[in-house]
Amino acid sequence: MSLNYSWTRVQAFKLPEIRKKYRALWDKIRADSMRLDQLLAVHRGLWTGALYVYIIPREIAEEYRLEIEALKPTIRGRDIKPFGFIWREFYIIYASAKHMPDFPKRFPNIMRWLEKHKLILERRSAVFTWNKEWWELEDPLEPQIFEQKKILSPLFSRQQSFALDISGKYYVLDSTTMIRPWLSDEERELYAKNWKKVNEKDLNIDVFIEEGKKASRELGSWGESLWYVLGLLNSETLEFFFKQYSPRLMKRTKRPKKGRWYSYMPPYLNILPIKMAEQPTRSEVIRYSRTISEKTNKFLALPPDVDPTEKAELESEIGFLVHELNEIIFDIYELNENERIVIQNFVYKKR
Q1: CA distances from 63 to 60, 69, 297 (A)
Q2: Theoretical Cys-Cys bridge with 289: which of 14, 227, 233, 256, CB 3.0 to 4.6 Å?
């Protein structure tokens, strides 16, 4: 099957000047590392063009008897927290003429639902600009990129909030950023060429690709290596690094408060420095990431009437484990005690 690598298109990216007081520390974190995009693909989720039409809560799906084969469980950006997420029983109608040309015949109940909103759907720009069918998603992407293990992040967040979808079943929208294994050498090479053309004229594509492949082989199976990357991404170290250059959002008011929401989207995430630790240390990071994720998902799933003491104890336990993991990652990036204090003071102030 021929795949559409449209998500390898690259946005222009110019790194702003890093503040002088943090520049040496920022450079030290980046030293002897590789970029995230050498190892994994980074891009936003699919576009609907009419969010409230295609995103369906379970109750609506049952009421209208919508065909389950075309409904994909979806995670929204707001449902993702550091190391975990919660599925709130929302589905996306995966309507794609390319992947299901017989969609109208196969799913009559869904078509009746979509026809209720036909006037709005047929006025979307994708219909008259890209010749999309009135009933399909604007940009559904490929099922292969969703149906695999992947790291998810809200597009806008106050802090690093990366979580791992180990089930490989969740589809995500453009309110979410996906970080996942490259589908093929062709996809990775096309992305590197586009990045060079738009952002980095002197990029050595062969070196870029080979370093990524070497690291992938060293990390081993993606089932394990994604846990390692997850631990680094959620660390205070990379939060400090990222917030030196990522755009902040400001409220549109006459007297706006200081912006604390950051843009967790490509191409800002692409250049995050991933440092390869020795195998025993990687195994330790993986163990902590798995344990924290398990406890975080348990915490997020607690019922509203849970005993407050039980909730507080679990939250405290998660916080202690996160602190220990941060200390391990400080060591991976060879940061001394003073540098750790600078990072923590900066991070807590910016959240």
Answers
A1: 5, 16, 29
A2: 227
Residue 174 lies in a domain: no
Q: Which two tokens stand for residue 56?
A: 């369906």
Strand order in the sheet with 150-154: 41-44, 176-180, 150-154, 163-165
Containing 314, the helix (H) or strand (E) segment is: helix 308-332
Q: What's the rounded Cα separation, in Å, for the pair 233 and 15?
A: 19
Report the percent of the chain where pLDDT is more than 70.
96
Let me know the angle formed at the C-alpha of 98 by 152 and 76, rounded to the nearest 5 degrees: 20
134 and 261, same domain (yes or no): no
Examine the domain organization and report whether 227 and 90 are in the same domain.
no
For residue range 16-46, what is the model confidence (pLDDT) as tens digits?
899 999 999 999 999 999 999 999 999 999 9
Contact between residue 263 and residue 153 where contact means Cβ atoms under 8 Å apart: no
Question: How sure is the predictor about 1, in pLDDT bands with cuts at 50, 70 and 90?
Answer: very low
- Domain membership of residue 114 (yes or no) is yes
Pairwise CA distance, residues 33 & 329, whole Å = 13
Q: How many domains does the chain have?
A: 2
Backbone angle region of 141, left / alpha / beta, with phi > 0 → left and psi within -120 to 50 → alpha: left
- Give domain status of residue 159, yes or no: no
pLDDT tier at 258, thresholds 50, 70, 90: low
Residue 243 structure tokens: 């917030």
Name the 3-class secondary structure at 305. Answer: coil
User: H helices of 151-235, where?
Assistant: 185-198, 205-219, 222-233
